[in-house]
Design a protein that fits this description.
Blueprint (H helix, E strand, L loop, with lengths): L1 E3 L2 E2 L12 E4 L2 E6 L2 E3 L6 H9 L5 H6 L4 E4 L6 H8 L3 E6 L2 H15 L6 E5 L2 H6 L19 E5 L12 H9 L5 H14 L3 E7 L10 E4 L3 E7 L1
Parallel strand pairs: 6-7, 6-9, 7-8, 9-10
Antiparallel strand pairs: 1-2, 3-4, 4-5, 10-12, 11-12
Helix pairs in contact: 1-3
């Protein structure tokens, strides 16, 4: 099954160098352009990110004192997991079924050993925001009502500067469709109507803002634009 340029999906009993996605002993293994990709929240790099995440981090400053965050562009969930490790309640949505499967497996393994207020559902942001069932129970996590104070978007994988992108970012760029600028603006407006406080958009530093933000919090190579309700 071909899902995009240079992407092939196969189901096999044993890993092979030609397979893009391989299901082997109940584990998802990914091969992309001769690179082995994996999502392990217990890895040293991820643990460093989670444990080093503090109130001084630009993302934490962007969400402010809010406790209920909805990440509408889940990807591999690193930002969402960082927020969850800070004691916030996080809901993640992911539109691509393959990315969702990787994320689901990694979260499921992690949550068996670490207690976090985080949940996951499959779906497209626009469909979720226009649905009357938008705040119903998620697919992974404890069923509960979820009225987000902050809705978070990260379209960073769509950067055209692939030379500097990490391999996981390259994977997302190859697998996920690009969102036109107008569509992103529409999503932000829809999210402002659904959230209680604000919408946070992660953007490449130096890039154009979709609309004038209320606040901007800068990191080394990107920034967080905050749009207040």
């Amino acid at each position: 099954m071909f899902l995009g340029s240079n992407i092939e999906l196969k189901y096999t009993d044993k890993p092979t160098s030609k397979s893009f996605f391989i299901f082997y002993q109940n584990q998802i293994q990914v091969k992309y352009q001769n690179m082995n990709l994996s999502l392990d929240y217990f890895s040293e790099a991820n643990q460093r990110r989670f444990q080093g995440f503090s109130k001084k981090d630009p993302l934490m400053q962007a969400v402010g004192k809010s406790k209920l965050i909805w990440d509408m562009t889940g990807g591999f969930g690193i930002d969402a997991m960082s927020l969850a490790h800070s004691g916030l309640s996080i809901k993640i949505s992911e539109v691509n079924i393959l990315v969702y499967m990787i994320l689901y497996e990694a979260l499921e393994a992690y949550l068996t050993k670490v207690s976090l207020h985080i949940s996951l559902e499959f779906g497209e942001a626009k469909d979720i925001l226009t649905s009357t069932k938008v705040f119903e129970a998620p697919n992974l996590g404890e069923p509960r009502e979820f009225q987000p104070e902050v809705i978070y978007f990260d379209f960073m994988f769509e950067s055209t500067n692939s030379a500097k992108s990490k391999k996981n970012m390259e994977f997302l760029k190859a697998l996920l469709p690009l969102s036109p600028r107008l569509q992103q603006e529409e999503l932000i407006q829809m999210a402002l109507e659904k959230c209680l406080k604000s919408v946070v958009l992660k953007s490449k530093e130096g890039g154009l803002s979709l609309k004038k933000p209320s606040h901007i919090y800068k990191a080394k190579s990107f920034r967080y634009d905050v749009f207040l309700k």
